[in-house]
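Hey everyone, long-time lurker, first post.

I ran two proteins through the pipeline my lab uses and got sequence/structure pairs for each. Pasting them in order. The first:
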Amino acid sequence: MKKMKSLFFLLLLVVEVIVRVQKENFILQNEIDNLKSICKEIPGALASFVGYVRDFSSGKIITSLTIEHYPGMTEKMLTNISRNASQKWPLLGTLIIHRYGTLNVNDQIVLAAAASLHRKAAFEATEYMMDYLKTSAPFWKSERVNKDNIWVEAKLDDELAKDRWK
């Protein structure tokens, strides 16, 4: 057991974290390849999640989503989320990209990914990062419905999802 804890501690020291907040779209395969390339070992698993702008919300048809953020604070919070995931699971690297600005229906919003030697850690860490990103990162979203912009409220389901990791 002590040997395993030592190995886990060594992995913590070499976990690479990529965090970007950007207006530009991203190319999923390029980002996955980039994450793999910064890992100190060849990952046996890499799990990813991509979120898209939906065309509906709360029963209403939306035409676009505008995302605002707090520059500097946002990157710091996303880095903390990634580092916390690296402390909970034996990861080789993490990646979070979140877009801001006005996005159209079907545009990519977010990419969260985790690389590990084994799939369970990669899956769980990616889910953890998304649960915390949805509830803790300083983003504000408004949906365009007809000619109105409607601010998106926090959802209880997202808070409950985050709470299960405590």
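...and the second, right after it:
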Amino acid sequence: MAEVMAEVMAETHRHGVAATSSSGGTLLPDPTGLRTKGLCARGLRTTTAVLALLLLGACATPPAPGVALASALWADTRFAAPTQRITADDVFALSPAMQQHLAGPIASQVRFKGRQRGLVDALVREGGLQLEYDGARTRTAAEAFEARAGNCLSLVLLTAAFAKAMDLEVSYQSAWVEETFSRSGGLTIGSGHVNVTLGRRFVDDRRGGDMSTLTIDFLPPEDLRGLRTQLISEATVVAMYMNNRAAESLRQGAVDDAYWWARGATAAQPAFLPALNTLGVVYLRHGDAALAEPVFAAVLQAEAHNRVALVNGVLTLQALGRADEAAALRARLARIEPHPPYHFHDLGTQALARGELAAARALFEREIARAPYQPEAHHGLAMTLLRMGEPAQAGSALSMAMQRSGNSVERDRYAGKLGWLEQQRAAVPVPDAVPDAVMTR
């Protein structure tokens, strides 16, 4: 049976709010200041186009590519000029509205609670900014402030921008979290997670002021237990932002813009492997497999078992007509990951197309068991249950798909289907077969 392989990328998204102090205890155990519109807090993290978030230095591998190698992989003349401003300069920049907020509500909180806790309360406590989680796109600090929304990386940028303006020390952590995947625009996207720690003011080193630190994580407290993190540089955070924008541009079909964002990410932090992976995917999408091959080879040289680069390497070698090499790389991947993301979902979709409803149901349920965050699997199960004449269970599955969706557009799509189903149930019995036009995405 054929196995579908798609380009894989990596992003940073996740939500919920908690803050912990180096002096002990959870300072903000309730996420009331961050309204998530019923989203599930699991599985919403960071993006790379054929990327999975890679934590550098996790094992003894050859050094990651440096500046010289990254620049040697660029192909500026192959791409049109960008249609939008491609820069890292705006990532932490404060807008006039943010400066006013800093001088007003934040200053009021700081006066009574100190700089660290005052900033956190002004951002995430009830009565603060009332931030909402939105994984649709990655925003700069100023954009997240204006929208009062963002994914976890955007909210980290917003927090860091204010902290830097207050002369607080800022550090960033990449978290070891369960790897999750989603699909969009023909891409399979892997997600990761970051958080931010606020330290003392630099002047406090000399004055003996508050020496504690405060870590802010846009995850609910229950997801923080046992969470392992690794310090990352601000250059890596900037690369994550630009990499996310590259992945988002690819999803929209803006390949030229995606190239310039990916190029910027590799320039900001050449050792950030997901950005190289995204660059390779851009080349594939642009029809330049010959340019993609050395990019994925560089990733695999730095991390031999990088599943994302292996998947994309197979696609690249197939596009170049090198079938034997592609088969060898596929076998290498199968030894590492016999059942890739969406494996049972895709088998379930094939079974459903053949009318094998019992088999399709079992396969979708198996995908959900290992990846409950995946809305497509819940949607596939709903389609199957409808055709099996079980509308009540189908409605429950559609409801789960809606809850697991990572952005408002996807949630609205599933909500519309759920509304249609409820109307049909109220009017007439649901037939054994439901038109594909109604229930397919």
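Reply from user beta_strand_b:
Welcome! Quick read of the second one: The two ends are 24 Å apart (CA to CA). The longest strand covers residues 168-176.
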